[in-house]
Design goal:
Order of helices and strands: HHHHHEEEE
Structural class: alpha/beta
Shape: globular
Strand content: 15-25%
Radius of gyration: 19 Å
Mean pLDDT: 78
Number of domains: 2
Helix content: 25-40%
Strand order of the largest sheet: 1-3
Number of strands: 4
Length: 191
């Protein structure tokens, strides 16, 4: 079950939050259609969806799991149909709009599943936005990092969560789950 988006918390940030969520819905629907038409559906060359200031952290690069998106395609299409009129006429975006909070909450829940990360807006009483990465490799020769962050990183940017699994790390291999400002430089160590 999805949590309704706390529209009253967003206040003036509602248009930006809507644009962020619907922009990602539009992107996923577009990639799925491209894939069905025999194209790669990788999103190469796409402009990034603007990160709204009302999001409580930076989720990093969001790469959808299109196989999971295929599994929830019916729900994505339903929400696309319900939320599309708001994308065409932003004047309709008000906290009082019937069903808007529930539909945006359902969309966020689906996006969190498809992207594998938490998306929380400032002021909401739920777990913070996170940047997550999962790497599953057979053999590693060289450097593998789950997440590499440059610059200051604190709780105001959200949570970091990385999982790196390797079946074999060679003599020249180095694995780092989370590298903040080059602390996991990737120099090989003796095994």
């Amino acid at each position: 079950m999805s949590d309704a988006l706390e529209l009253t918390v967003l206040g003036a940030g509602l248009p930006a939050a809507f644009g962020f969520l619907f922009g990602h819905l539009d992107r996923i629907v577009g990639r799925r259609l491209a894939r069905q038409d025999g194209e790669a559906g990788s999103g190469e060359g796409e402009e990034p969806v603007a990160l709204p200031v009302c999001l409580d952290g930076d989720p990093g690069e969001l790469t959808p799991d299109l196989d999971l998106a295929d599994q929830v395609a019916g729900s994505l299409q339903t929400l696309y149909g319900r939320l599309g009129p708001y994308a065409l006429d932003a004047r309709r975006l008000t906290p009082q709009a019937p069903g808007l909070a529930d539909d945006l909450g359902a969309l966020r829940t689906l996006l969190e599943a498809v992207y594998g990360t938490r998306l929380t807006f400032r002021g909401e009483s739920r777990e913070a936005t996170s940047m997550r990465a999962t790497v599953d490799a057979a053999d590693i020769e060289g450097v593998v990092k789950g997440i590499a962050v440059r610059g200051a990183w604190g709780t105001e940017q959200g949570c970091l969560d990385a999982s790196v699994t390797a079946r074999n790390v060679g003599r020249t291999g180095h694995v780092t789950g989370i590298d903040v400002d080059g602390t996991g430089r990737g120099e090989p160590t003796d095994a």
